[in-house]
Known about the structure:
Chain A is α/β, with parallel strands linked by helices. Helix content of chain A is 37%, strand content 20%. In chain A, the strands form 3 sheets. Chain A has a 7-stranded mixed sheet, with helices on both faces. A 5-stranded mixed sheet of chain A has the order 9-11-10-13-14, sandwiched between helices.
Amino acid sequence: MPEMSYAEALRSALREEMSRDPRVFLMGEDIGRYGGAFGVTFGLMDEFGPERVRETPISEATIVGAALGASLLGLRPVAEIMFMDFVLLTLDQLVNQAAKARFMFGGKASVPIVVRMAGGSGTGAAAQHSQSLESLLVHIPGLKVVMPSTPADAKGLLLSAIRDPNPVCFVEHKLLYKTQGLVREGDCTIPLGLADVKRDGKDATIVAGGIMVPRALAAAERLALEGIEVEVIDPRCLRPLDVDTIVRSVRKTGRLLVVHEACQTGGWAGEVIASVGSSEAFAYLDAPLRRLAGADIPIPYNRNLEQAAVPQQADIEREARAIVQARI
Amino acid sequence: MTAGRSKARRAPVAASGNPPGELAGLEERAERLGLSREQLLEMFSSMCVIRRFERMADQLYAMGKVHGTMHLSAGQEAVAVGLGRAVRPDDYLVNHHRGHGHFIAKGADLARMMAEFLGKDTGYCRGRGGSMHIADFDANNLGANGIVGGGIPITVGVGLALQMLKRQQIVVGVFGDGAANEGVFHEAMNMVALWRLPVLFVCENNQYGMSMDVAKATAKLPIAQRADAYGMPGWCIDGNDLLLVYETMRRAAEHARSGSGPVLVETVTYRYFGHSKSDRNLYRTKDEIESWKQKDPLLLLREQLVRSGIASEAQAEALDQQAQSAIDQAVAFAEASPQPDLSSLTDFVYA
């Protein structure tokens, strides 16, 4: 099992799917010679040619709309939106068109597109290049929203996303691209909608997504030194959400903390908490259900302010201790 | 300045090499285009069906049988039929919200269309879409769109797929004068021209985006002249002249199909009904509507058919009545059809 970076794992998934299925092609800004802003598609144009690694003008709405149109004829486009912030330029095509085509045409259309996007803060790119907009996308029926936190998940989920017959928003994190991990070779698909228990524990459940997964795991290591064993669950897919795995964990631990980078108000933590609070796990709760999310502000430029705007490892430790000590 | 713009919109520029937009010499023009008497009568008949369909849809709405709104295209029939007959039946169509005529011209089943209007389970979209979202994927009709300009980027992708799959078909993307001022118009025109995609864009300029006069909304007319900025042919024609539409679209389709890249054709026409069912026609005068009715595409064609001896008045009337019968049958089918089952509410969200 080779070790590779998150970016390499994504590239490996793209390469394997393009080799396996001639219908798969890539489109996006600067994805050719440049290799994409974060290097994910580096080298693929040489391998597959400029038609299947199609560089586009800076026209995000039409990139997504064209992916949708091509998918209606049976192709399987993977569109790259350089920064997740720019997905806002595509919302008519993504939300009004792609997400609804199947439904409003009475079940006839299928829209097998993947829209890859780089989200998250931590690079000093300020308010228009650092957002975590996944909660916005989770709200839309017809879309699937995937957010991998490890190289292995990145590859397995991207393989599944490309094979999925629905529009899939694939949310990558800028700070994860260079992280290393073991990735199985070959056809290592991971079903969309299946959470992963990243760490077993009995005292509390932490549900975390994206960059918050490694932070939660690091926090768990520290807490273990204090005798607190937290279970860390990565939903991996925010829509559909694997509520069962989370509920099962909370029944065991009696405590839940949901951590995400996205702004708190309207964030997907609310959905997780509502799902658990209205489930059979309610009777097993030993503490109030809590969330730790990004501050309700645009992401600031200054390094200290930027770090303070989103949950860090120490914040997760503090919140986890608090729910372990809390009593209902 | 305003007067100048108004003048521009009333005086379409003929595509170079096209005959002037007058209907004299119908027979001669038809012969030159290789259209038989039967084909001319079929085109007339199809225009009658569209007009009758729109009137019936309006009546059904007034009777409270249509749940939602609709956008009627009466007055624009020559565009739909001239275009529909100029392209191949297996060419793709991406339609706009005022698209009933284009669907009918592409051979859509009237009964299933009417059933969709009434929200029935037998409708094209099983009652999920209504007037604005009729689609028939089996017939390469990829659907109408409720978002002004929303279909334009989708058309790009269909054209891209056709090129990548090396198919001989083209895609026709129809939109209105209002949509031409959406940002995606620029993105899409640039992209199809850049990649020389087999796309025929048709801008159906019916003078108004809801209530907004095209001359007040558009800095420079005709809209077709924008094609020049993308290095693609752009032709503005009289959209009420059936044979001119047919000839221009045929030429445009050949251009797109030959691998020479996309074409933008603007058809200048007029809608008689209001924008949608909430429209009280406060932004235009009765005189203006009447003046366009003097140039009614159906009326003009009918006169020409009779004058040239292609059809007698009685034959023309019979075709119109047949159109009404077809509509009546469609309504009967729609009314007798079942409602969607409530248990199917959440179907079709995901594949």
